[in-house]
Amino acid sequence: MRILITNDDGINAPGLKVLEAIAAEVAGPDGEVWTVAPAFEQSGVGHCISYVHPTMIAELAPRRYAAEGTPADCVLAGLYDVLSDSRPDLVLSGVNKGNNAAENVLYSGTIGGAMEAALQGLPAIALSQYYGPANAHLDNPFEAAANHGAAVVRALVDQGHWDKADYRIFYNVNFPPAPAADVRGRKVTAQGFRTDTGFGMAPHTAPNGRRFLWITGGPQHIPTEPGTDAHANLEGYISITPLRADLTAHEALDDLKAALE
């Protein structure tokens, strides 16, 4: 198996090393793992592409590249430059430092990389490690992902639903904020929503008098509804959520047609 990996935390991120090990285990001794990751951190860029300026790419080692762009840029670089002779069988994005559950899905560059792969017609999985008091101070905070990641990826490759729709399914996996031994299993979940929290913006004045605005985040340990991603993670489970890039509210179409057409 030939696997392309990327992330949004950057080429030197510890989570990328975890993903490299996961991908190597899944690919097997006769497989190949190719890395194309952002040269610098790209957290929060979503599915952004560098449409108005070029992306510089550099080979750092065999099968290892850094690109001055977003995770979606990196996937495109992998498909149309680095691996233009033979497409990968699978694209993995992560392992993100922090959860990409609930509303975080909409902002995540980790998700954006997997989404671009799906739009390019490839199987894709995004992987993220939830942080919390039980794992943040471990020698390896990514312990849950490192120990359970390959099995989850294999299970999805072998038993997941992979269609050929225009907007193909891809998968969002979040590992719980717990040591590997405390992971309780897997749950297939919907995307949740954290109430009474979200992103905001706070003004600050620099010593030189200039005004700056900083993005602020909300609490990450507010449970979502049962059956959704963050709820499962906070209960100690790995969440597996099928996603599509299609943002249409299909359930509203018939009523809207009746009212407006």
Automatic annotation (TrEMBL):
Q: Transmembrane helix: is it a keyword of this entry? A: no
Query: Domain Survival protein SurE-like phosphatase/nucleotidase, which positions?
Result: 3-194
Tell me the keywords, alphabetical order: Cytoplasm, Hydrolase, Metal-binding, Nucleotide-binding
Chain sites annotated for binding a divalent metal cation: 8-9, 43, 96
EC number from the UniProt entry? 3.1.3.5
**Record field: catalytic activity:** a ribonucleoside 5'-phosphate + H2O = a ribonucleoside + phosphate
Cofactor: record remark: Binds 1 divalent metal cation per subunit.
Give any GO molecular function from the UniProt entry.
Answer: 3'-nucleotidase activity
Principal subcellular localization: cytoplasm
Q: Which domain of life is it from?
A: Bacteria
Q: What cofactor requirement does the entry state?
A: a divalent metal cation
User: Which Gene3D superfamilies has this protein been placed in?
Assistant: Survival protein SurE-like phosphatase/nucleotidase (3.40.1210.10)
Family designation: Belongs to the SurE nucleotidase family.
Q: Which PANTHER family match?
A: 5'-NUCLEOTIDASE SURE, 5'_3'-NUCLEOTIDASE SURE
Q: What does this protein do?
A: Nucleotidase that shows phosphatase activity on nucleoside 5'-monophosphates.
Instruction: Provide the protein name.
Output: 5'-nucleotidase SurE
Source organism (scientific name): Rhodophyticola porphyridii
Species lineage: Bacteria, Pseudomonadati, Pseudomonadota, Alphaproteobacteria, Rhodobacterales
Gene name per UniProt: surE
